[in-house]
Amino acid sequence: MQHDSERYRIVLALFFVVFFLLFARLVTIEIVDRGKYLRLSKSNAILRKIIYPERGLVYDAKNRVIVDNQLEFNLLVEPDLIANLDTVALCKALDISIEDFNTRLKTIITKNGPYRQSIIERLLTIQQQSYFEENAYRFKGFEVGKFSTRYYPYVFGSHILGYLSEVNTNTINNSKGYYAIGDWIGKIGIEGQYESILRGTRGSSLFLRNNNNKIQSSFENGQFDTPAIAGKNIHLSLDMGLQEIAEKLLTNKRGSVVAINPNTGAILAMASAPGYDPNILYTKNRNVFYQNILSDKNKPFFNRAIQGLYPPGSTFKPFASLLSLQENIIDEDFGVNCFGYYEGCTNKIIKCLHHNPGHASNFFKGLANSCNSYFCTIFKKLLDSRYYSNIYSAYNTWRSYLISFGFGQKMGIDIPGEEKGYIPDTAIFNKQFGVNRLKSCNIITLGIGQDKMLVSPLQMANMTCVIANKGFYYTPHFLASVDNPNQVDIKLMDGFKKKHSVKYISENNYNLVIEAMHDVTKFGTAKNTRVADIDYCAKTGTSQNPHGLDHSWFIAFAPKDHPQIAVAVIIENAGAGSTWAAPIAALVMEQYLKDSLSISSQDKFAELVNTNLLGQQSSK
Question: 482-490 contacts: CB < 8 A, separation 24 or more?
């Protein structure tokens, strides 16, 4: 009896265990997995259509719409719904071959599957749109879809504004479910940088389908539909009128113009040449145009303002002056006797443009006349100074000033693609000359902005802002405001209001350099360049280029007192800075400060626009 009782308890326990497992499985199927099976059943019965929001507009500093939206009509296909298709009629209407159609359809099915609506033909003409709408019954599975795309009212600013492009697999995988195959996303420029602000929030509508996948009605009277929320508009500091002037001045040239308000860091204009019209990337021949731009040896996609790296040449000399004055290497009375070349290093002969007596007899004349002997001399004095423990300590001091001014690092501008430039460190010299074997004459040309030093036009414009501000700058940026900003937007905009102070240099030394840069425009290398009766400060530069003719540089700020604009201009392979870069910068400053060009300036503008310098340039 006792054994029977034990067997009974064992059987009963097994029964409860089995019952519990079956019950748990039932719960899993009915409750836990119910949502999954319901979604699977709905995937065949319910069609979800995405409602794309209107993308936010972009305005310039004068409230002009510079990035707008426009409608385009595309032909959509859902492959699984195709039935009794008159392929010949469809291909005739689209003006494509049957082979082309079959290839497109196969690609769509491979990429998106047979149940997802996909675009098979973009940018229908009015005639094509009407034809497919009137003959919808003949083309089951096909539908005319209305889409909002971008339009750029001005043909300028392509490197700044960017464009839209179809998302790739990596973007889809990293978007946490936001993007899907066929979606478009901001690519480079403002479109890319502020994608999350401009794109808005997508909505959706659910429709009930029958066994033949034909739409019967909205699902549950639309109670599960969600509206699309338009993207927010943004306002830029960019002055499109000034941008137009800058880009036209770069016609048939390779180079860049950067103009910044030193009081705020707001970028007023940023031109890079050659450029392109972003509207061509929204045409039927988009892929052809895109490939043509990519294959152009002049690199129209390349933004020289933030990606182009060059030796700064003599435009570096105002910085060299500040450092040498602050480190007590020279004072304003220090001069050299230059006979047209530097002879302080027996292994190098460095020529000067001037050889007349007294042209570098003090600091002001040395900078105004851009005397290479003067600046090689003071750089050698710094490197060999007994004030430092050794030449490496002296060089690192010099380099630390450069880094604090923003050289050798990214400035943090709010468009993608910025390059940081290059300021060599002592490890490079140990590798090149041997450990602890560096001599001042080995690197003497760094003192005149040559050798291994590489900077971008944006960095040179920023350096000019530091001088104009006497010791500080704001991160160069385009974004001025966002409509209906949230806390994230506000924090973003506040970040551009942060003042960056550079390594300490006295106000007196800034004043000395500013007076010397003013002398550049009065009797120095820019004496023939006028800015509409406005006192301004500047420095010309000629940058040696191992790949061809020298580059033409010019930096300036205006007015001299209470500066409102700082400019950096480079024209590749164009020679002396006073010849080409200087007059371009002068016209940009005049346009901004006067809001127009004088008659004589208009003549100079026309002359520069019609000057073709591409023929004498060699490709990099």
Answer: 482/197, 482/232, 482/233, 482/234, 482/235, 483/56, 483/232, 483/233, 483/234, 483/235, 484/232, 485/232, 489/197, 489/232
